[in-house]
């Protein structure tokens, strides 16, 4: 039963890969003669996209760390506190 599930997952993954390759080929053919589509974007656009990707990656890490940090050190936050 488990091996059938793994086999189905492999088949679906291969289909996804094949469909992705076909889409890429179709897009390449569609923009083949388009000079705008084949031109590189301005450096400022590339830099901004890289900044955005880094920001999203950092936010993802922070969210993942927020869940695990409380579990990693159960005694955190119970240190010395002073009443005023």
From TrEMBL:
Region of interest (Disordered), ranges: 57-84
Protein name: DUF2570 domain-containing protein
């Amino acid at each position: 039963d488990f091996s059938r599930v793994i086999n189905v997952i492999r088949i679906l993954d291969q289909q996804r890969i094949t469909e992705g390759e076909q889409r890429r080929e179709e897009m390449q053919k569609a923009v083949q003669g388009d000079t705008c589509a084949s031109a590189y974007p301005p450096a400022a656009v590339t830099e901004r996209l890289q900044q955005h990707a880094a920001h999203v990656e950092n936010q993802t890490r922070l969210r993942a760390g927020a869940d695990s940090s409380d579990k990693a050190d159960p005694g955190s936050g119970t240190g010395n506190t002073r009443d005023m």
